[in-house]
Amino acid sequence: MRHVSQLRALSAVAVLLVVPGYGDREAGSAGTTVTAPATAANARVGALFDGGLDGDHFCTASVVRSEGHDVIVTAAHCLDDQDDAVFVPGYRDGQAPYGTWPVKEKYVDDAWSEDENEDDDVAFAVLGPGSLTGAQVEDAVGAAPLATDVPAGGTVTVTGYAGDADTPQTCTTRATAYGDTQQRVECPDYPGGTSGSPWAAADGSVVGVIGGYQQGGDDPDVSYSVVFGTTTAALYRLAVGDGC
Q1: What integer is the mean pLDDT of 54-63?
Q2: Cα 150 to Cα 12, 41, 196, 232, distances in angstroms
Q3: Most buried one in 26, 116, 197, 213, CB count within 10 A?
Q4: SUPFAM superfamilies, from UniProt (predicted)?
Q5: CATH number of the structural domain 6-234
Q6: Backbone torsions φ then ψ of 232, nearest 5 degrees
Q7: pTM exceeds cut of 0.85
């Protein structure tokens, strides 16, 4: 477990894209975990705080494209019981360089809310306006595309916030399939707080988040994600529709 309006997706919807070359199922190898540099891509990744910067950050999330410019993706176990979450993109050294965004609406599948089904450990949230200028989060830091129906096996970059860390960490390695519905990576030192960390493919699209099996895994050196499929796609479309 990495964790310091409930809707059931009914439509089988394909979302966005399939990443070329991502379906290669060669065996993975351990990556190297380093401090994430302050780049435009990493600014889209942020820490989820309880109530604001004065609280503790407990999970990670990232901005994904939407017509409303206001949607993030994370793990369901991060948001299901949270009523006062605040997203801080690019959080670094105790500072919120772009501002903070409150979670306005959250989207967690009923299969997770009712039974904590590990195959549905994905959530989306619609954010309110930012604290500095009132801008939508995507207008402030950009957003990544979301990709579904992408088989495990490609190289991914996993970026997130560990425990009480004031800077993000990142690791690039090859993901491998873990059964038909889960995938895993070997990245050292991804403890509590890293749940919800995006798995970015080579083109920057988000193909997973830390969560799923054992809510992301009980070994900080091995992390898991749901393989995004039709349920994730439908949940995403509900969030995007709310934000339009």
Answers
A1: 96
A2: 15, 21, 18, 12
A3: 197
A4: Trypsin-like serine proteases (SSF50494)
A5: 2.40.10.10
A6: -60, -40
A7: yes
